[in-house]
């Protein structure tokens, strides 16, 4: 998954740029994404401490990391430890459980329990992850673990506003996609050769 393969795509943009006279210019966050079903959706990361997702047609999401927890620079929200994360959807606390993230794609899944539904975002290709609600495939998300998220909804799925809130938040906080194990083994062997 991308949170182990590389740092956030906008990592360099976190540092202010020097102006012509050495003055620092603040980083300009990307504009909102236009989702095909729910219109404008804004994703904002405040360092590795807090992520917010907002849109006029979806419930707001806030995901926070305990500031006392150890941070991993390769994960946008800073950790995969569920004890260090707190998730609110539309003001109600929800349970978020990221798996540990080891060799297999499935170990990068993230589960959320909210409003009687079980969500899972799990890598299903190198660039993207599949979002399901109670086992039903809703759509595919792509993100490098930054504020840019692309959602492709299944045409026959009954997608709810909360589905978008969860998908955008998880894709941004943890990144999407992952190499299959055989590809990782080939990479490891070829990098070990002289």
Descriptive overview:
This protein is of the alpha+beta class and 194 residues long. It has helices spanning 2-5, 161-174, 181-192, and strands at residues 17-18, 24-25, 33-35, 39-46, 50-55, 58-65, 85-89, 92-98, 110-114, 117-123, 128-133, 136-142, 150-153. It has an eleven-stranded antiparallel beta sheet with strand order 3-4-5-6-7-8-9-10-11-12-13, covered by helices on one side. A two-stranded antiparallel sheet has the order 1-2.
Low-confidence stretches: 1-27, 179-188
| Portion in helices | 10-25%
H/E element string? HEEEEEEEEEEEEEHH
The number of helical elements comes to 3
What is the number of strand segments? 13
Percentage of β-strand residues? 35-45%
Overall pLDDT, averaged?
82
Strand order of the largest sheet: 3-4-5-6-7-8-9-10-11-12-13
The rough form would be described as globular
For the biggest sheet, the summary is: 11 strands, antiparallel
First-residue to last-residue Cα separation: 27 Å
Radius of gyration from the CA trace?
A: 17 Å
Structural class: alpha+beta
